[in-house]
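TL;DR need structure tokens for one chain.
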Amino acid sequence: MNILVTAFDAFGGENVNPALEAVKQLDETIGEHTITKLETPTVFHESKDVIQQALEQDHYDAVISVGQAGGRFNITPERVGINVDDARIADNKGNQPIDVAIHPDGAPAYFSNLPIKAMTEAIKKAGVPASLSNTAGTFVCNHVLYQLGYLADKYYPNLLFGFIHVPFIPEQVIDKPNTPSLSLDTITKGLTAAINAISDLPDVKVALGETH
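>> reply
TL;DR here they are.
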């Protein structure tokens, strides 16, 4: 598969985004997959525009977006993106939508069609803490997951899509007592295992109905 792996730039006062740094460290080939990496802005709608432009310029079988979830102690593949922007803080261009639908003509929610349970187990088998998450929040991470579902629904019916949250890295928690973190190498190891797990299934689309 040709897989586009995206990650956000730093936001919320942080100087680094572990999602982006880990994605930068991914190999260009993981198992059977060819990996293309893409940095996206932590900005509502602009993040989707950058991804959509990439989809228009080349063929990808899957898109996996990666984002930071400070406070989580493990890597968490996300199950679902919901049709609402409700920002606790402003994005990197000062936008702070409250209770706003992402797409009025979209579904209430879009479920990832990747084998997220298999991916979660693969991360754990690699020795990295992981769990399946049922909420991607209501900030730009959820926004992008929902937008990927919308793009697949409206324009790319064969596109596999999903989102993975990762924790802080140690340098981010020096002044955050009792806040969990994982090393950058550990996060990269977990993402690699998750991506590689997609090829563990003989036909990923056959298994999609079991992942929701």
